[in-house]
Specification:
mainly beta, six-stranded mixed beta sheet, five-stranded mixed beta sheet, disordered N terminus
Length: 158
């Protein structure tokens, strides 16, 4: 076989590997009846039992801090960060602990759904207006659910 001859197995394996490079794992969750996704590359853990200690003189969407095994982590209520009113926490409410650019934060959400493998080439970018958008892109799942992908870098901006 010369250097220009290709075996069909080589073509299939190259195609599969390039397709897999576009697949990223996302944790999906609900906040204010909106489905969000965040790359599992940022997710440290999910906490369902927590004690948030309030902080004075911080924006209203910062609910306070938690102590996670000796590490003090600020907690952002995603609903309030979107400008929505606060609601009572339920048994399905939880904190998703994220690490973004070496900053660890907790994001309070209504509920966690599941982890999905999503082809990032099939997402649609969302234009940023006034530097306030918390979603960077979106996609539609087979069941018709629209998932907004959290702009993690924007989450840590004030």
């Amino acid at each position: 076989m010369s250097s220009t001859d290709f075996d069909m197995e080589d073509i299939v394996s190259v195609s599969e590997s390039s397709e897999n490079e576009n697949i990223e794992r996302f944790l999906t969750f609900i906040s204010d009846n909106i489905t969000f996704g965040v790359s599992t590359n940022h997710v440290i853990e999910i906490i369902s039992t927590y004690m948030i200690r309030p902080l004075p003189m911080v924006p209203g969407y910062i609910k306070g801090i938690i102590n996670l095994r000796g590490m003090v982590i600020p907690v952002i209520d995603l609903r309030m960060r979107m400008g929505k009113p606060a609601e009572e926490y339920t048994s399905s409410s939880c904190i998703i602990v994220l690490e973004i650019d070496e900053v660890t934060i907790g994001v309070l959400v209504d509920s966690v759904i599941q982890v999905l493998d999503i082809d990032v080439t099939k997402t649609t970018p969302i234009p940023v207006r006034d530097n306030q958008e918390l979603a960077s892109s979106m996609t539609s799942l087979e069941d018709g659910t629209v998932v907004l992908f959290l702009n993690c870098e924007q989450m840590i901006q004030q």
